[in-house]
Amino acid sequence: MSDLAIKPTFSLAPQNIDEALKFADYLSKSTIVPKDFANNAGNILVAIQWGMELGLQPMQAMQNIAVINGRPALWGDAVIALARSSPLCEYIYESDDGETATCRVKRRGEEEQSRTFSMTDAKLAGLSGKSGPWSQYPKRMRQLRARAFALRDVFPDVLRGMPMAEELQDIPTERELNQAHVRKDDEPKQLPAYPDSKLEENADNWRSMIGAGRTSPDHLLANLTSKYTVTPEQIERIQALAPIEGDHTDASA
Asked: Is 211 among the domain residues?
């Protein structure tokens, strides 16, 4: 018999809550964990628990679970890895024709299903041309969207209802929505243009009122600009309604 003893495989997987808490605390102080988990033992503990339910080892969970806008999510490569490793999966095929990404999925005992995501879909969702991956790697982003739709629909039990991180990154946060709403409210209202026809219609009456001292060009303009957009030419014409200094013609004549 060989003198070499077979040693048990070393594992960092915690066996109880105390080990999990200590393990999470150690990892949170490490410099090689993703930024979502740095100095955040609570996030690490949640990720480990999610990983256990999905069949991921603790370190796999740390690398494949992201915290997006406060929600845990799986990166796209982990989603397809979990689906393909399940005995329920017969095959997953992905393709892209340059405009539309397609993901074809076959679950054991069921008909094949497919999901697509096109650049038209991206435009409707406000993603086309968006700074970041959608501008730099549109083909990859289409692929991930089609994959997310297909695998979440066909293998919800395998993924335990976890969303895909790439999807969540494209969903605006409540803060962003509120900021957009505030910016929209702060924008000055566009006033309608004052018609030249109305100026022609009112000019004689305004000239009489100005001559009688009942109003002034400045007062008329202040009233108009509160309701309409007035052109520089219209401003000049209204200011010209004032009688020339030294002209004492009776305005009511």
From this structure: yes
- What is the C-alpha separation between 64 and 66, in angstroms, rounded? 6
Task: Say how far apart CA 208 and CA 205 lie, in whole Å.
Answer: 5
The two tokens of residue 64 are 């494949």
Beta partners for 193? 229
The reply to whether 121 falls in a domain is yes
Strand, coil or helix: 171: coil
Read off the tokens for 59.
Answer: 């370190």
* 57 and 103 share one domain: no
Rounded average pLDDT per 10-residue block, the chain, 253 residues:
51 75 87 85 87 88 86 91 95 96 97 96 90 91 95 94 90 54 58 84 83 80 81 84 61 39
Read off the pTM.
Answer: 0.61
Assess whether 123 and 150 both reside in one domain.
yes
Give the burial class of 151: count Cβ atoms within 10 A of its Cβ; 0-12 exposed, 13-18 middle, 19 or more buried: buried
Give the CA angle between residues 10, 47, 45 to the nearest 5°. Answer: 75
